[in-house]
Automatic annotation (TrEMBL):
<protein>
    <recommendedName>
        <fullName>Arylsulfatase</fullName>
        <ecNumber>3.1.6.1</ecNumber>
    </recommendedName>
</protein>
<dbReference type="Pfam" id="PF00884">
    <property type="entry name" value="Sulfatase"/>
</dbReference>
<dbReference type="InterPro" id="IPR000917">
    <property type="entry name" value="Sulfatase_N"/>
</dbReference>
<feature type="signal peptide">
    <location>
        <begin position="1"/>
        <end position="17"/>
    </location>
</feature>
<feature type="modified residue" description="3-oxoalanine (Cys)">
    <location>
        <position position="85"/>
    </location>
</feature>
<feature type="domain" description="Sulfatase N-terminal">
    <location>
        <begin position="41"/>
        <end position="393"/>
    </location>
</feature>
<keyword id="KW-0732">Signal</keyword>
<dbReference type="GO" id="GO:0008449">
    <property type="term" value="F:N-acetylglucosamine-6-sulfatase activity"/>
</dbReference>
<keyword id="KW-0325">Glycoprotein</keyword>
<dbReference type="InterPro" id="IPR024607">
    <property type="entry name" value="Sulfatase_CS"/>
</dbReference>
<dbReference type="GO" id="GO:0005539">
    <property type="term" value="F:glycosaminoglycan binding"/>
</dbReference>
<dbReference type="InterPro" id="IPR017850">
    <property type="entry name" value="Alkaline_phosphatase_core_sf"/>
</dbReference>
<keyword id="KW-0378">Hydrolase</keyword>
<comment type="similarity">
    <text>Belongs to the sulfatase family.</text>
</comment>
<dbReference type="GO" id="GO:0018958">
    <property type="term" value="P:phenol-containing compound metabolic process"/>
</dbReference>
<dbReference type="InterPro" id="IPR012083">
    <property type="entry name" value="Arylsulfatase"/>
</dbReference>
<dbReference type="GO" id="GO:0004065">
    <property type="term" value="F:arylsulfatase activity"/>
</dbReference>
Length: 602
C-alpha cells in the first residue's frame, strides 16, 4: 500500500552537512538571531488538533510525506508540555509554561478564550509580536476553546491582519461549522465539510498575504482529527450541556478508506495487567465490543486526516505557483497527542503517557535538511522563540522556552554544544474520555500531576508525581510502553538499580530537577541544572549523578509533594516551591504516601 513506503519516524538523524549562510544559528546566545536574506522569510504553520505520533497517523498522509517529510526535517523528540488543547496552544503562542500562563483547562474557570483575555495575553503573544516586527499575520481555523458565537468580539483576538476563525459551539462539528472572518458576523456552514471550508479560506488568506507584498505568517488550524462534538445546548459561560463526543467524521470521498485497519497492537495496548498509576491503574481491560468501537474510532481519525493531507498538497502547489517556496518556512505540528487503548485508556489525551505528550513536528524551508530526522529534544514552549530566531527577531528575556536550530548547519553545530535533555510536563484536573465508553467521575478530579522526560546519552526516563503523591518512574530504554512502574509498591521488595546506580540516587536527582521546573520562569526553565548548581559544573543528569552530590540531592533537597488535588493551578495546593525555599533544602520527605519511603530506595 502507498503508505508502506514511509521511512520509520524513529530513525536516527542522517549525517549532517553544511549549507548556505541563511542557516539558523545555535542558540547559545539567547538574543542572537540568524543572518537574514535581503527579504524576510515567510512562514506557513499547519496546526492540527489531537494528532498522534504513536498511532502512526503520519503513515497515512502521503502528501505530508511528499512535501514535508521527504523535503524537510522531522523532529523525532518533540513534546507538548500540557496534553490538552487550550493550555498547549497558549504555551505555543506565548512561549510560557502553563503554570506561568495559569491557563490550565479547556473551559472556565481555568481555561478557554475568556481566561486568555483575563490573564492579559491578548497583547502579549506571537501574532502581536510578529506585527511589531513588520509581519502580516493570517489565521484560519481553531484558535482556542470557548472562542464562541457570543464572545468572539469581546474583544477580538489581537495581532492579526486577516482571520477566519472556527467558533464554538461548532468548532468540532464537522458538518455544522461556524466561521467568523475579520470583524464580520459569524457565518454557518451547515452540511458542508468543515476541513474543506477551512481549506478554501486558507487558500484565500494565502492569496491575500502574497498580494500584500509583505513578509507573512499564515496559520492553518483544522479541527481534524479531533473527535466530532455535537452540543445539544451550550451556554456563553463555557459550560457544555448534553454533549456527544463521537468519532471524527470523514469527507464523503474518504469514508471507504482503510477498511480493516486497527489501532496498532503495541505491547501497552489493552494490556493483560494494569499499568500506570492513580486512576489509570484501576481501569478494566476492554472487551471485544469496546475494542471494535475504538478501532472504528481510529479509522475515522485517519479518514478525517485525508482532507488535511489534500489541503497540504494544494497549499504547496499555490506556494510553488507564486514562486515563494525558496523564501518560505513550512511548519507542521499539532497541539497534543492521543491515545486509543494504551494502558486500557479510552480515546482521549490529558495523560502523561508518551502517546499524549510526544507529537509531530516537521519543518521545511531555506537551509533545512531534506528527508532528515533529528533527535534533539524540543517542546512547544520552544516554538515561539524558534519562530523569533527563524525570522531574525531579537528573543524576549521572559520566554520559558529556548530557540532551537532547524537547519542542517545549525543542528550540526548543536552537536558540539550543550543540548537540552528535559521536558517539563504538567496537568490539572479534567481527563475525560471520548467515544461510547466513559471512565466515570473519578477522572474529573484526580488527574493532576507534574512529570518530567529526561533523554540523554545512556538514559531515557519518565518521572512523575501525582497530586495524591503517588510516583511513577519508567526506564523507557527498556520499557518504551511505560508498563513497569519502578516505584509502584509492588516493586518495593526489589532493590532496583538504574543507570548502574541504586535507584534512589537517580530518583533524588530527578525529583530535584522536577522541583525546580514545576514553578520555573524564564532561564530557570531552560537551564534548571544551573539553578541547582550555579557554579556551572552540572549541566546534565549524567553530571548530577556524580557521587560527590549524593548528600546534596538525597538529604538537602526538598521534594515534590502536593498538599491537595485541584482542578487548576493553585500554588497554595502544590506544596513547597523553589521560590519559597531559596536553595531548597531541609530534611527528608515521605516519598510515597502509600507507605514507601525515600530511604527504602537509597
Amino acid at each position: 500500500m502507498w503508505w508502506s513506503s514511509l521511512p520509520s519516524l524513529a530513525l536516527a538523524a542522517s549525517a549532517l552537512a553544511s549549507v548556505h549562510d541563511q542557516a539558523v544559528l545555535s542558540t547559545d546566545d539567547p538574543h542572537a538571531g540568524p543572518a537574514q536574506p535581503a527579504k524576510q522569510p515567510n512562514v506557513v504553520f499547519f496546526l492540527t488538533d489531537d494528532q498522534d505520533v504513536h498511532l502512526s497517523s503520519l503513515d497515512y498522509m502521503p502528501f505530508v510525506k511528499r512535501h514535508l517529510l521527504d523535503k524537510g526535517t522531522y523532529f523525532s523528540r518533540h513534546y507538548c508540555t500540557t496534553a490538552v488543547c487550550c493550555p498547549s496552544r497558549v504555551t505555543l503562542w506565548t512561549g510560557k509554561a502553563a503554570h506561568n500562563t495559569n491557563i490550565t483547562d479547556v473551559n472556565p474557570p481555568y481555561g478557554g478564550y475568556g481566561r486568555f483575555i483575563e490573564q492579559g495575553f491578548n497583547d502579549k503573544y506571537l501574532p502581536v509580536w510578529l506585527q511589531e516586527a513588520g509581519y502580516n499575520t493570517y489565521y484560519t481555523g481553531k484558535l482556542f476553546n470557548v472562542h464562541t458565537l457570543w464572545n468572539y468580539d469581546s474583544p477580538y483576538p489581537a495581532g492579526f491582519t486577516s482571520t477566519d476563525f472556527l467558533l464554538d459551539p461548532g468548532t468540532y462539528n464537522y458538518l455544522n461549522s461556524t466561521f467568523q472572518r475579520n470583524q464580520e458576523k459569524p457565518k454557518n456552514y451547515e452540511g458542508q465539510y468543515s476541513t474543506d471550508v477551512l481549506a478554501e479560506k486558507a487558500y484565500g488568506l494565502l492569496d491575500e498575504a502574497v498580494q500584500a507584498d509583505k513578509p507573512f505568517f499564515l496559520t492553518i488550524a483544522p479541527n481534524a482529527p479531533h473527535c466530532n462534538i455535537h452540543m445539544h445546548s451550550y451556554s456563553d459561560d463555557g459550560n457544555q450541556h448534553e454533549t456527544d463526543f463521537g468519532p471524527p467524521v470523514a469527507a464523503k470521498r474518504h469514508e471507504h478508506l482503510f477498511e480493516g485497519v486497527k489501532v496498532p497492537r503495541t505491547e501497552n495496548f489493552n494490556p493483560d495487567e494494569p499499568s500506570g498509576a492513580n486512576w489509570i491503574r484501576d481501569l478494566k481491560k476492554q472487551n471485544q465490543t469496546n475494542l471494535d468501537f475504538n478501532d472504528n474510532f481510529y479509522r475515522k481519525r485517519l479518514q478525517a486526516l485525508q482532507a488535511v493531507d489534500e489541503m497540504v498538497d494544494m497549499l504547496f502547489k499555490k506556494l510553488e505557483a507564486y514562486g515563494i517556496m525558496d523564501n518560505t518556512y513550512i511548519v507542521y505540528s499539532t497541539d497534543n497527542g492521543f491515545h486509543i487503548g494504551q494502558h486500557r485508556l479510552q480515546p482521549g489525551k490529558s495523560c502523561g503517557v508518551e502517546e499524549d505528550i510526544h507529537i509531530p513536528l516537521i519543518i521545511r524551508g531555506p537551509g533545512v535538511g531534506e528527508n532528515e530526522t533529528t533527535d534533539i529534544v524540543t517542546t512547544h514552549t520552544d516554538l515561539a522563540p524558534t519562530f523569533f530566531n527563524i525570522l531574525g527577531i531579537p528573543l524576549r528575556t521572559d520566554f520559558d522556552g529556548a530557540a532551537f536550530p532547524i537547519t542542517k548547519r545549525g543542528l550540526q553545530d548543536l552537536a558540539v554544544v550543550e543540548r537540552k535533555e528535559h521536558v517539563n510536563v504538567e496537568y490539572w484536573g479534567f481527563a475525560g474520555s471520548e467515544g461510547a465508553y466513559g471512565y466515570g467521575p473519578m477522572d474529573s478530579f484526580n488527574n493532576t500531576y507534574k512529570a518530567l522526560r529526561v533523554i540523554g546519552p545512556g538514559y531515557n526516563l519518565y518521572y512523575s508525581v501525582w497530586c495524591n503523591n503517588e510516583h511513577e518512574l519508567y526506564d523507557m530504554s527498556n520499557d518504551p510502553g511505560q508498563l513497569q512502574n519502578l516505584l509502584h509498591p509492588s516493586q518495593s521488595h526489589q532493590k532496583h538499580k538504574l543507570l548502574n546506580l541504586p535507584i534512589g540516587n537517580v530518583i533524588a536527582r530527578l525529583d530535584s530537577l522536577l522541583f525546580v521546573l514545576k514553578s520555573c520562569k524564564g532561564l530557570r526553565c531552560t537551564k534548571p541544572w544551573h539553578t541547582l548548581h550555579p557554579q556551572g559544573d552540572v549541566t546534565t543528569l549524567q553530571d548530577a549523578l556524580s557521587v560527590r552530590f549524593d548528600h546534596f540531592y538525597e538529604v538537602e533537597q526538598k521534594r515534590v509533594v502536593f498538599d491537595r488535588c485541584e482542578r487548576g493551578y493553585l500554588p497554595e495546593s502544590e506544596g513547597p516551591m523553589w521560590e519559597d525555599s531559596g536553595k531548597a533544602f531541609g530534611g527528608m520527605e515521605m516519598f510515597y504516601r502509600g507507605g514507601l519511603h525515600w530511604s527504602e530506595y537509597v
